[in-house]
Amino acid sequence: MIKVRLPAEWEKHKSTILCWPNNKEDWPGKFAPIPWVYTEIVKKIHQDEVVNIIVNGKQQELKVRKMLSKNSVDLKKIKFLKFQTNRSWIRDSSPTFVKDLETEEVIAIRFKFNAWAKYDNWKKDSKLPAFFSDKYKMKLINATHNDNDVVLEGGAIDSNGCGTLLTTEECLMDSKIQVRNPGFTKADYAEVFEKFLGIKNILWLGKGIAGDDTHGHVDDLCRFVNEKTLLLCREKKQNDENYFPLEENWERAKDFKLEDGAKLEVIELPMPEPLIFEKMRLPASYANFYISNNSVLVPTFNDKNDKVALGILSELFPDRNVVGIHSVDLVWGLGTIHCLSHEEPL
C-alpha cells in the first residue's frame, strides 16, 4: 500500500463538488427555496475555483444554468457532470481524496456508503466513487478491513492535514444505533485510518449534537481551523439537551494532543437557539461551515449568535471572505453547507 496523506480542507482546491438537489423528500414542504440556496453557495465558491455540479440529466442542467445566470454566476467556471443520484449530500457519498506522499498524485479512497445505516435509497450514491475516479482519471482504492468494505461518511471525520483525525464515538462506536461497522474497535479504525488516510493520531469526541440524523457526525460539532486549533461547539444553557454532551466534549478536548504530542488550542463556538420545525429539533450548527479557496461559507439561522460565529471565523481566517448563508430552510434537510459540498485537492 502506498503512503498517503489526507489534506486539510483549507489547502488549495482544484475544485469544489456539489450535487444539485433533486430529492424533494429531503426537504418535505420546503423544497422550493433550496435550489436558490445552492445558487448562492455556487456564486460564493466559484470566484476562485471551479465548481463541479452533478446533475441528473440534460434537462436539469439547463434549468440550473438558467438559475445560475440569473444570479450572475460565470458559467465558464462551472462544470456539469451528469449522474443519477439518490440524494445530494455529497460530503458523505463521494470518495475521500488523499495525496500520494511521494508523487503528490490525488487518489480516491472508496469507503462504503449505506445512507448512514438508516435509509434504503443509497445504491446510486454508492457508485459515486467509481464515477469520480473515471471522470477525474484518478486511481481508486477500496477501503477494506479483514476482507470487508469499511463504511464511513466524509462528515464523520475531520483532519488537520498533518496526520491527526477527529471523529466521535457516537457515530463510529455505537453498537445499537446506525451501526456502521459491526464489531469494530478503536484499534480497527486506527488501522484503517492509517492505511488508507495516512492518519497517525485519532481524537475521539463523545456525542454529536441533538437532532443530528447521522448519529454523531463531527462536522456539526467540532472542526479543525488550522493545523493546531479546534473550533468546538459549546452550549451555555443548562436546560438545553446539548449542554451536557457538549460540556463532556469540552472536557475531553482539554487533554487532546496533536500527532507530534503538542497540545491543541480549543476555541469555543456558540450554538444557535434550538430550531424546531414540525416538532422536530433540527441539527442547526455553525460548525457545518465549508472552507473554499477564497471564502468560508457559514450557515446562519436568523439568530443572535450568527454575528458571533461569523466574527470568530473571520478572526481565524483573515485571508478569506467569511460569509453567512441563510440556512433555516436548508437545515430542514438535516444538513447544511459542509454536508452538501466536497473539495477536490489540487
Shape: globular
Number of strands: 21
SS-based structural class? Answer: alpha/beta
Largest beta-sheet characterization: 4 strands, mixed
Q: What level of helicity do the residues show?
A: 10-25%
Structural domains: how many: 1
Question: Can you give a write-up of this model?
Answer:
By secondary structure, the chain is of the alpha/beta class. It has a single domain (4-345), classed as L-arginine/glycine Amidinotransferase, Chain A. The chain has helices at residues 34-45, 58-70, 90-93, 115-118, 128-136, 169-172, 186-197, 243-253, 306-316; strands spanning 4-5, 13-19, 50-55, 78-82, 96-100, 106-110, 140-142, 144-145, 148-149, 158-159, 164-168, 201-205, 222-226, 229-234, 265-270, 276-277, 280-281, 290-291, 295-300, 321-326, 341-345. It has a four-stranded mixed β-sheet, with helices on both faces. Strands 4-3-2-21 form a four-stranded mixed β-sheet. Strands 10-11-12 form a three-stranded mixed β-sheet. It starts with a strand and ends with a strand. The mean pLDDT is 97.
Layout of SSEs?
Blueprint: E1 4-5, E2 13-19, H1 34-45, E3 50-55, H2 58-70, E4 78-82, H3 90-93, E5 96-100, E6 106-110, H4 115-118, H5 128-136, E7 140-142, E8 144-145, E9 148-149, E10 158-159, E11 164-168, H6 169-172, H7 186-197, E12 201-205, E13 222-226, E14 229-234, H8 243-253, E15 265-270, E16 276-277, E17 280-281, E18 290-291, E19 295-300, H9 306-316, E20 321-326, E21 341-345
Parallel strand pairs: 2-3, 3-4, 6-7, 11-12, 14-15, 19-20
Antiparallel strand pairs: 1-5, 2-21, 5-6, 8-9, 10-11, 13-14, 16-17, 18-19
